[in-house]
Amino acid sequence: MINPLPSSTEVCIVGAGPSGLACALGLAARQIPFVIVDALEVGHNSSRAVLMQASALEALGTLHPLLPEELVSVGIQSKTLTTIDLQERIVFRLRMTDIAAYTKYAFSLLIPQHRVEHRMREYVQGGGNNIHWNKRVTDVKEVDEGSQYELRFESGEVLTARYVVAADGSKSFLRSFAGIRFIDPYTKKEAGPGKNDLSFVVADVLFASPLPSNVPRDGLQMMIGAGGVVLTAPMLGEGSAGAPPQNNNLFRLYLGVPDTPPRSPDAAYLQAILDARGPGSHSKLHPVPQIAKVLDSSRYRTRPALVDRYRTSMAPAGGQGMNMGICDGIELAQAIDEHRRSAFNAEKSGTTHDAVQIMDAYSTHRRSVAAQVIDMVESMTQVEKGGRGWGAYLRVTVLWAVFKLPFANCVFAWKISGLGHAKKT
Ligand SMILES: Cc1cc2nc3c(=O)[nH]c(=O)nc-3n(C[C@H](O)[C@H](O)[C@H](O)COP(=O)(O)OP(=O)(O)OC[C@H]3O[C@@H](n4cnc5c(N)ncnc54)[C@H](O)[C@@H]3O)c2cc1C
């Protein structure tokens, strides 16, 4: 039974995606009252993230030790991330196992985003908190001399909250309300359509059996070459009637495309790309995998963008957006907790509390993490683009040489894992 939306709360989290849910878990763990709302009927189920890194698993584990274990049990542990060229020669193979000394999650977990969100929602609701769906925030204003916010919903309700968490995604309404700009970190201009945007197609497909052996079922593989990336990420399918998830040729494909693809590409469109530049397309050793069924498909454009401040997103390369969102959300819950305590102590002792400093520290830290991640993702996107010519050849040769060095491999695996970004306490 869903309780109606209350008229006031301490914290209102707008958006029940991974960032909002992570913040909700963090607040619940600290027993801070909150309300979480989302404009959707119920959570996302479109094909988006598939890679979860150690940093997000570790961060969730600080709140609920069983949660990461449960996610791991319904995902595939990709112990290596392999990049091959059109002739299927290994360009480089990143060994995530090299970070085993620092984490028990020394792999990238291949798990669809909707499954991660589903489990996080169960934990939020298990703690006795409703998620209020179908609640689109349409207006926000400061009230009570700036000590509260008043949020108005499309459905007519009004809610006041002391803190508002803008976890409402890359097209955030709240960000605009707060006057926070979304800027291209390289041009420093407002992020918007540009010539460096990448178009790609994401599709969940079932491949026909037998699956050719050049399409690994236990790890992520990225094929680069002229025309764009072909990335295959195996996933476990839903097990029938309570059975554990099955490894049944279910794959998420990320296909770079030079032009604007159809809104929801069909099997023929996807197969044509695989035939032209997928595994088996340029080798006589293996056939091209055949698509038996398309379960879901959509198109995306990506561009780097960073908010100019975190108080008051991302290309899929590197699998970082959802991970960062989860870590942002958990760290924000911690900052809100510190902020409340500081205000309480100041009131008790009759001193002034430095409201701005705590939130600024959060903003500075998370923004610097985001900037570093964008740099890494941009470098990886250059590799993904492939292409012909000396530039592309040199990039690949340098990477091939660098990844021969165990130290370089370990450093890069550490970067991808996001473990170095955790807040120092
Ligand atoms: C194709 C693709 C592949 C990706 N692959 C990866 C990957 O492998 N690994 C990875 O880590 N990341 C990946 N990402 C990025 C990841 O999907 C996003 O970074 C992540 O979803 C961001 O989470 P979020 O909670 O911040 O926002 P969202 O997931 O966008 O959630 C925002 C929520 O806010 C709600 N909302 C919006 N406006 C309002 C409003 N006015 N009122 C109420 N609710 C509102 C929305 O309905 C939505 O539910 C990928 C993204 C794409 C597009």
UniProtKB/TrEMBL annotation:
The lineage of its organism: Eukaryota, Fungi, Dikarya, Basidiomycota, Agaricomycotina. Residues 9-188 form the FAD-binding domain. GO terms for molecular function: FAD binding; monooxygenase activity. Belongs to the paxM FAD-dependent monooxygenase family. It comes from the Eukaryota. InterPro entries: FAD-bd (IPR002938), FAD-dep_Monooxygenase_BioMet (IPR050493), FAD/NAD-bd_sf (IPR036188). This is FAD/NAD(P)-binding domain-containing protein. Gene3D superfamilies: FAD/NAD(P)-binding domain. Transmembrane segments: none annotated. Keywords: FAD, Flavoprotein, Monooxygenase, Oxidoreductase.
